[in-house]
Amino acid sequence: MHANYHSHTWRCHHATGTEREYVEAAIEVGFDILGFSDHSPYVFPGGYCSGHRMYMRQTADYFRTVLSLREEYRGKIEIHAGLEIEYYPKFFKETLAFLADYPCEYLILGQHSMFNEIESGAFWPGSPTSDVRRLEAYVNTVSEAMEREKFLYLAHPDLLNFTGDGKDYDFWYRRLCRTAKACDLPVEINILGIATRRSYPDMRFWRIAAEEGNRVVIGVDAHSPAQMRDRNAYEKAEAIAAEAGITPERILGIN
Fold it and tell me: Residue 27: CB partners within 8 Å, gap ≥ 6?
């Protein structure tokens, strides 16, 4: 790997380390490109502030810090400033309008909560479920988001931990892969999921992605500088791709 566009900062309330430490770690392991993509602020009604994303008032400092490091480390590593964001249809337009005032270079689609996080009926897709209605809702929401053509790529597409019928898994996730391919949007093998032994990456998904011909990104999803240095996790990500049948030319950022 020579590029990683998926890195967080302390502002999301569940990551550690300074931005400078992430940059130094990226240089140490040989990255040519480092993208910061902390969890985006979101415009919610009533002044609600999420506990797992940066606050709106922190946005200016986030971009100021990243862009300052870009200049400081110019010639040593290429640094980009982006955000990881959910697609909440009710509030997405207002949030994009808010972000338009900042020098955001890219958005990564990372759907951690379904519907949205402040209304009844919301759920976290990472929780095990055999309810096919949840799988359907996840795929439909993410597919609708991809069709908006606002994103660099889809992070941890296999986040939804479906434990039900394999035929349902194949049907709905194949639809997601086909939508991603139609939108020319790469899907991410998530290194954080490997390092922390989560339910993803899920080999069932990656076999489908291989069959459907999706383009692939390997993303560190770093929440600490130490995760940038985890070469073992990088190797496991590449092994997952190889086992699934994803050819090297379809993996972006490793050549």
Answer: 73, 76, 77
pLDDT above 70 for 255? no
**CATH code for the domain defined by 3-252:** 3.20.20.140
Tokens of 238: 């590449």
State yes or no: pLDDT of 2 exceeds 70.
Answer: yes
Q: Which positions ≥6 away from 145 have C-beta within 8 Å?
A: 87, 109, 111, 151
Number of residues written out for the chain: 255
Q: Please give the Cα distance from 220 to 188 (Å, whole number).
A: 9
Q: How sure is the predictor about 121, in pLDDT bands with cuts at 50, 70 and 90?
A: low
Q: How many CA atoms lie within 13 A of 72 on its CB side?
A: 10
- One-letter identity of residue 197: R
Question: Could you give the CA distance from residue 68 to residue 59 in angstroms, rounded to a whole number?
Answer: 14
Distance, CA of 208 to CA of 174 (rounded, Å): 6
Helix axes 203-212, 166-182, angle to 10 degrees: 50
Q: Where are the domains of the chain?
A: 3-252
pTM of the model: 0.95
Cα angle value 106/239/245 (rounded, 5°): 85
